[in-house]
Amino acid sequence: MNNSNSNINININSSINDTANGSVHGAQGEELAEIAVEAYTYLFPLALMDVTRRVTTNVPAGAKPGFGPANLFTHLRSFPPGNFKEVVRPNFDTLYSILWFDLRAEPVVISAPDTQGRYYMLPMLDMWTDVFAVVGSRTTGTQAGHYALVGPGWSGDLPAGLERIEAPTPIGWIIGRTQTNGPADYASVNALQDGFLATPLSQWPGPAKTPAPALDPSVAMGTAPLDQVLAMAGADFFAYGAELMGTHPPHLVDQPILARMARLGVKPGQPFLAAELDADAAAAVAAAPAAALAHFREVEPRLNPVVNGWGMARSGIGVYGTNYLFRAVIAKIGLGANLPEDAIYPVAYRDGDGVIPNGSNNYVLHFDADALPPADAFWSLTMYDGEGFPVPNNLERYAIGDRSPLRYNDDGSLDLYIQHSDPGEDRRANWLPSPQGPIGVTMRLYGPRPAVLDGGWSPPPLVRA
Question: Order of strands across the sheet with 463-464?
């Protein structure tokens, strides 16, 4: 774990007490306040995953891209438009294939086509947001394969030809990505997406019947899942989390936090009886959401080391162990993070002068010939506004990278031009248009090489022209 993450854990008590002491008094009250914030932090990803699942699976098959019943892949067939506002930092490198799997009735077979060497990955997340398996180019290769996802406690036999993958929780999320080289590549990628299949074991080898969701009118479809979780009162949140833990078992290493949570009455699978809490405990529960969320905001800028103005998570992401604070903050700012070995996303927090990047300035991003972005698959640079959304431009160009027709310098080095106005014909191929105002420049490295993971390589600074 990097040093910044260790600092996050060391500094937790000060901000917890600063926020909670207004409602909780005395030694017992202070300890209960700390436990309540730790419990909220621990349960936050689980609650957010489940609300996200309830919203995105509460839609008939084919009604909305990225939404649909459990155990059915749903695909995004094109890049988002320039005015896209549904999620922050949308991807302009790959097309998504998304599945919520539900193994409570039986295992589900995940099938991947032969992608003919094309990069893809199917990271599989449990309900605690840990990536427990990845099918794809880096791990299993690009040949066709069939993988039986098996839930906790299932002990049956599998047919020959299926590779068994044990899921830690009976429900989980697959956020698949397939390399897409621009709009002209959509037809080829869409054909591959049709080869990603989920088949209940009883229907194997298929074809699988299209599941029909039992639509739940109580689900708040018009409110973003994150906003729903953030709006929960403490007692409601802990009741929800305790119930979810009855379905999705905590990890084996979680005994210490579970023991502390039990002192507050939060136990896996048991009703949380808020009405029976004493005054100190009730105050701790009520104050926990605000205190925890304030702590999330406080530590977010310190999550990752910043080099040359770029922040990037090289380790500790995707699988979190007992670093529950890091896990919760990552879930809040970007639910569904990958393993760093699969993809790393450096973000430019500052330019070379230590100033927040702004579209009113012209920047050059210069890579020496021997320091081009080291990625085994591909890399890109994407432009967003200060809130993480694309902004329409006349070229409809929102990302450039090694698959773009870039012009390299005679010595093999590369200059990328980041600015609002057209830099002219000689530089246009290397131009990433920026909007006016604060900008969010994000690099993506798919299949990052060891130099990225071990800190030997970082993006160069954005230099004002």
Answer: 431-433, 414-419, 363-367, 463-464
402 falls within a domain: yes
Q: What is the pTM of this model?
A: 0.90
Largest CA distance in the chain: 74
DSSP state of 450: H
306, 326, 361 - which closes a domain? 306
- Element (H or E) spanning 384, and its range? strand 375-385
Buried b / exposed e along 45-80 (16+ C-beta atoms within 10 A): bbbbbbbbbbbbbbbeeeeeeebbbbbbbbbbeebb
Q: How far apart are CA 121 and CA 137, in angstroms?
A: 6
Q: Which of 88, 95, 105 is nearest to 74 (CA)?
A: 95
The values of phi and psi at residue 105, to 5°, are -85, -40
Beta strand 145-150 pairing with 163-166: parallel
Tokens of 231: 């709006």
Q: Residues 187, 107: one domain?
A: yes
Terminal-residue alpha carbon distance, the chain? 36
Domain extent at residue 379: 345-464
Question: Is 246 part of a structural domain of the chain?
Answer: yes
The answer to whether the CB of 339 falls within 8 A of the CB of 134 is: yes
List pLDDT tens digits, range 311-324: 999 999 999 999 99
DSSP string, 203-246: GTTSPPPPP-----TTS-TTS-HHHHHHT--HHHHHHHHHHHHH
Strands (E), 22-170: 74-75, 94-102, 108-112, 120-125, 131-136, 145-150, 163-166
Cα separation, 404 vs 421, in Å, equals 20
| pLDDT tens readout for residues 327-378 | 999 999 889 999 999 999 999 999 999 999 999 999 999 999 999 999 999 9
Number of structural domains (the chain) is: 3
How many angstroms from the chain centroid is the CA of residue 263?
32
Examine the domain organization and report whether 85 and 47 are in the same domain: no
Six-digit token string for 64: 């909305």
In a domain, 276, yes or no: yes
The CA dihedral of 426, 403, 317, 299, to the nearest 10 degrees, is 20
At 185, which CATH number? 2.60.40.1610
Please state the rounded mean pLDDT for residues 382-405: 95
Asked if residue 95 belongs to a domain, the reply is: yes
